[in-house]
Amino acid sequence: MDYLSDAHRRKVLVVLPEPIDDRLESLTRVARAARIQVSRSQLLAALVASAPTDPARLARVMHHYLAQDVQVFSQEHPGTDLPQIRHPGAKRGRTNQHADPEATGRETKSP
């Protein structure tokens, strides 16, 4: 048997609203609390794989998402007693841009 999780992989660019990214991070911590070692990519893949394929059910899911209030969504969280997760590589949400161009040694162009 071939497992879906072992299928050929494809890289995709996904841009998420910050509260959704925060929830994704919390869900990886919830999985870890359940002793399931899972990456953010695996979690996203599992959520997509379990999404409804019936048009009416998917429409309800989308209407619910599109109508959610950010404050209400942000207050719903899985808990505070969750394990920390270390992420390899560069820190998420940080850019390599500096407010001070001299900090990078680059010259700025005058208008």
Short description:
This protein has 111 residues and is mainly alpha-helical.
What is the β-strand count? Answer: 0
Order of SSEs = HHHH
Catalogue the unreliable spans. 94-111
Output the structural class: mainly alpha
Rounded to the nearest angstrom, the radius of gyration is 19 Å
Assign a percent range to the helix content.
40-55%
- Shape from CA axes? globular
What share of residues are in beta strands?
A: under 5%
- What's the N-to-C terminus distance? 63 Å
Contiguous helical run count = 4
Mean pLDDT across residues:
83
Main sheet makeup: none
- Assembly of the depicted chains: single chain
Summarize the structure in words.
By secondary structure, the chain is mainly α. The chain has a domain at 15-76. Helix content is 41%, strand content 0%. It is built from 4 helices and no strands. The chain has helices at residues 18-33, 40-49, 55-67, 70-75. Mean pLDDT is 83; it is low at 94-111.
